[in-house]
Design brief:
By secondary structure, this protein is mainly alpha-helical. Helices cover about 80% and strands about 0% of the residues.
Length: about 150
């Protein structure tokens, strides 16, 4: 008597193939080091442009930031074949950190004319972004491998 259910060996082979695919993806999702550096430099440059008085130059820097981020996203997708979406823990780390650095920097720059605060904030947040990008991508790879 035949059933429509697959046999155990077939199911086990399918599960093994899925796990192999997840491990292959885990090997690809961690971006190269220059991706983290580039994202940090883009953010640093954007925030450092606050010291510039010319609004047209600021607009060009903002455009360069947007184009740079799009380029990084495209190269990531092209290399890995997936889009990466930050999970809740990423936002719960990044948003308070960015607010804790940016709010005092904006107050100093706008309220007290201390424009040096924005490039300092850019350097701090650029470095933090680069380091956190690396950490988050390694955590994602570990989750894909079933290590977390």
């Amino acid at each position: 008597m035949e059933t429509d259910l697959p046999d155990r060996d077939f199911a086990a082979a399918q599960l093994a193939a899925l796990q192999a695919d997840r491990e292959d993806l885990a090997d690809r999702v961690v971006q190269p080091w220059w991706h983290d550096v580039a994202s940090g430099l883009l953010l640093s440059g954007l925030l450092a442009s606050w010291v510039l008085e010319d609004s047209q130059v600021r607009a060009l820097v903002t455009l360069a930031f947007a184009v740079g981020l799009c380029g990084l996203a495209w190269t990531y997708w092209w290399r890995t074949g997936v889009w990466a979406y930050p999970d809740r823990n990423v936002w719960l780390t990044w948003v308070p950190l960015a607010a804790a650095v940016l709010v005092p920097a904006f107050v100093l720059a706008d309220g007290y004319g201390q424009v040096w605060a924005m490039p300092v904030a850019g350097a701090v947040l650029g470095l933090a972004l680069a380091l956190l990008n690396r950490r988050w991508s390694r955590q994602w790879a570990a989750e894909l491998r079933g290590e977390r």
